[in-house]
Amino acid sequence: MNNQSCIPIKKEWDIVGARQYGRDIAKNLGFGSVDQARIATAISELARNIYLYAQKGKICFDIVEGVNKKGIKIVAIDEGPGIEEISKVMEDGYTTSGGLGAGLPGIKRLMDDFDIISEVGKGTEITVVKWLR
Amino acid sequence: MDTVLQDIVLGNSDEIVKKWINEVEKNSVHKYSLTISEELFDSTNREFVNVIFVSVQNQGSKDDLKDFAERIINFGWPLNYLTEGMQAFRRVTTNFIIERSETLDAERFKQVLESVDEWVDPIVNFLVSEYSGSWESTVSLQKVALQELSAPLIPVMDGITVMPLIGTIDTERAKLIMENLLEGAIKHNAEVVLIDITGVPVVDTMVAHHIIQAAEAVRLVGSTCILVGIRPEIAQTIVNLGIDLSKFPTKSSLRKGFQSALEITDRAVVNLKDKGNEMENMIDSLNKG
């Protein structure tokens, strides 16, 4: 692993910075425009979740190498309220903020690997990976 | 104001200037040499130190300082060049006076420090506030400029209005879009409103949510909303996210959207030249008959 870097999310405009940064990494790795849009959208969702629910946190980017493949790993870390029922937030249409409720399940469909760790009162860590094909 | 100390400093200005320039050059050899030519750096240093001395000499008058600050801000010099320069001046002057002093007890030492601070601090404060003032005014101007760009509504013809959206949509802008859209739809008596998202780089759930809400609100005031400019990659991410946009019509381009808008308002684009030919043909056929 190399090239790890984190972008703090504190203001709404940090979301734009994070996804621009992620899009650049994806572009340099050789992702096509559709995958770039997917990655940027996923980052946008992750960052917005941090901004909406935890107020502050960070998005970390990493380039991962598997057997014969390369990918971008994005980790969203916050110390917010945590998620009580993870199975519920992974359902389409479930929302506590009046939004569309498509964020987390959407991210899962946009990316290849998806992992979520959350503890109530402690925070949430979501790790996603998109592999370059 | 301790005039004795002031006299020491002003009387030995040449020596202090030399030391100061050495100090500044030592500190910034690596920082600026890439972007700024040596002559410019030298001349700016000289100007800077002159301004400092003028300011020490006639306390309170900041005209020269203001001129200098304005020029240096316009050139885009980094603020830390100025703060480092002032720190260097503080160091050099304090050392210089202390080296000159015969008696050096705590009282004297305190006096020296206080006097130098009295010269340096107002200059630093002034420079920093000039800089931040110029940034603030730039930021607020840009904010206004952005707001003007954020949600324009163009009445292209009777009953049809277009809102082209370019750039990132945040919460504030989403609100503006909704307001302008509804206000404009009513003001221009629009039957069809086209929202063009060709220039929106990322459509995430929040952006989609705001667009859906805006379209729904437009429907409530009696107009039809068509979402146009959906690029292929955006279409794919919208499907992946599982966002339901089936409630209102969508089109890939503004042109197609405009065509459906014409259909909805019972109109069509007619090519005048062809029509002329048609008439001629008709007259011709009548003549023949």
UniProtKB/TrEMBL annotation, chain A:
GO molecular function: protein serine/threonine kinase activity
Keyword Kinase: yes
Pfam families per the UniProt record, alphabetical: HATPase_c (PF02518)
Domain Histidine kinase/HSP90-like ATPase: 34-133
Keywords carried by this UniProt record: Kinase, Transferase
EC number: 2.7.11.1
Gene3D superfamilies reported for this sequence: Histidine kinase-like ATPase, C-terminal domain
InterPro entries: HATPase_C_sf, HATPase_dom
UniProt keyword annotation of DNA damage present: no
First-level EC class: transferase
The protein, known as: Serine/threonine-protein kinase RsbT
Organism for this UniProt entry: Salirhabdus euzebyi
From TrEMBL, chain B:
InterPro entries per UniProt: Bact_StressResp_Reg, Globin/Proto, RsbRA_N, STAS_dom, STAS_dom_sf
Protein name per its UniProtKB record: RsbT co-antagonist protein RsbR
Cited Pfam families: Rsbr_N, STAS
Source species of the chain: Salirhabdus euzebyi
Top-level division of the source organism's lineage: Bacteria
Keywords tagged on the record: Phosphoprotein
Entry annotated with the keyword Phosphoprotein: yes
GO molecular function: heme binding; oxygen binding
Residue ranges constituting the STAS domain according to the UniProt record: 150-261
